[in-house]
Amino acid sequence: MKLSRKAKIIYNRIRREYDIDDEAGLLLLQTAFEAWDEMRKAQQEIDGQPIYFDRFGSPQEHPGCKMVRASRAQMIQALRALQLDTGAEEL
């Protein structure tokens, strides 16, 4: 499993807290945190500057913004597929 140290910590915390031990659940959880790592890397590349100016002086969205959105969507989809009871319904 190729996850960052922080992703591994959260992965293991969720795995233990929700007692995820089946192969499908572990794969979904791993997919979620691989996407999380990708999102974090893209956010670091953007470095607080989501807009840049091309050689003609036109404002452009940083290519990393698309990666952040795609990775976030993939992470959320994998976590939803796990059907974790977070208690958010009560809020």
Account of the protein in words:
Helix 1 (5-17) packs antiparallel against helix 2 and helix 2 packs antiparallel against helix 3. Helix content is 63%, strand content 7%. The chain is built from 3 helices and 2 strands, in the order H-H-E-E-H. The longest helix is centred in the middle third of the chain and has 24 residues, at 23-46. The chain has a two-stranded antiparallel ribbon with strand order 1-2. The protein is mostly helical and 91 residues long. A hairpin with a 5-residue loop joins strand 1 (51-53) and strand 2 (59-61). The chain has helices spanning 5-17, 23-46, 63-82; strands spanning 51-53, 59-61. It has one domain (5-84). The radius of gyration is 16 Å and the shape is elongated.
Largest sheet: 2 strands, antiparallel
Q: Output the number of helix runs.
A: 3
Unreliable sequence segments: none
Encode the helix/strand succession as letters. HHEEH
